Amino acid sequence: MTSGIPTAAISRLVTYLRILEHLEAENVSRTSSNDLAERASVTAFQVRKDLAYFGRFGTRGMGYTVPVLKRELVRVLGLNQTWNVVIVGVGRLGQAIANYPAASDYQFTYVGLFDVNPDLIGQEVRGLTVQHISELPAFARTTRIDMGFLAVPPDRAQDAAQSLADAGVRGILNFAPIVIQPRTHDTDAGPDLSPEWRGVTIENVDFLAGMKRLAFYILNPHLQHIQTEE
Ligand SMILES: NC(=O)c1ccc[n+]([C@@H]2O[C@H](COP(=O)([O-])OP(=O)(O)OC[C@H]3O[C@@H](n4cnc5c(N)ncnc54)[C@H](O)[C@@H]3O)[C@@H](O)[C@H]2O)c1
């Protein structure tokens, strides 16, 4: 059902969900594609098209019931299930992420923290004991890990990402400013993804890249650009 859906549509679903959360907090019970479109700075056609990838959520001419559409988007995005997350690299950024409470709004649960610094191993951060990265394989044998957040120095990120793939994670949120290269192996038909990387999604988060893009757009105001997605 979800093949052929543009990545941007998924980003917009996250934006619509955030808008619905705000509407619900303001006790607004109904919305429409026009209203959602205005709040998300997209067209109503775009809203309807994005939602149509996943089903029929509204009533023609009546719009959407906020809690119902919110519940449906939560279901589509998989936010109604528990996601076990490990953080690899528990330095400044890794600790800030571990201490940031919003992840628990949905069922993202930090289950493990991994580092290599002997001063950090054994320390408690938000109720979890930092373990050495060499413990990750054994940890993964007893605890399901769905996602890994990568907050190690750039020159360590590729190896750490491989450790996460070997541990069976299905998604990596990469904060290090490098492009992670999933391991491949040669076959008669050419290079193929190694089995541990099949189906693994990588998302990059880089605020420095955002600052660089901002610098460009500030220098080129005629290209003014307003990002409307996450
Ligand atoms: N995406 C963003 O917006 C953003 C913002 C800030 C920093 N960063 C990046 O995030 C990363 C971390 O930055 P920081 O300031 O927290 O660095 P830091 O030096 O404070 O922390 C990095 C941690 O990684 C640990 N580490 C090193 N090798 C490891 C390995 N193989 N396995 C596990 N842990 C390992 C180190 O011991 C250290 O504790 C860097 O790559 C940095 O460039 C990204």
From TrEMBL:
Subcellular localization, as worded in the UniProt entry: Cytoplasm
Molecular functions per Gene Ontology: DNA binding; DNA-binding transcription factor activity
Residues that coordinate or bind NAD(+): 89-94
Pfam families reported for this sequence: CoA_binding, Put_DNA-bind_N
Keyword Lyase: no
Example of a GO cellular component annotation carried by this entry: cytoplasm
Keyword annotations from UniProtKB, A to Z: Cytoplasm, DNA-binding, NAD, Repressor, Transcription, Transcription regulation
Domain CoA-binding, first and last residues per copy: 78-179
DNA-binding region(s), chain positions: 15-54
Coiled-coil ranges (or none): none
Annotated SMART domains: CoA_binding
Keyword Mitochondrion among record annotations: no
Biological process per Gene Ontology, one example term: negative regulation of DNA-templated transcription
Function statement: Modulates transcription in response to changes in cellular NADH/NAD(+) redox state.
Family recorded in the similarity comment: Belongs to the transcriptional regulatory Rex family.
Complex formation: Homodimer.
UniProt name for this protein: Redox-sensing transcriptional repressor Rex
Organism from which the protein derives: Deinococcus maricopensis (strain DSM 21211 / LMG 22137 / NRRL B-23946 / LB-34)
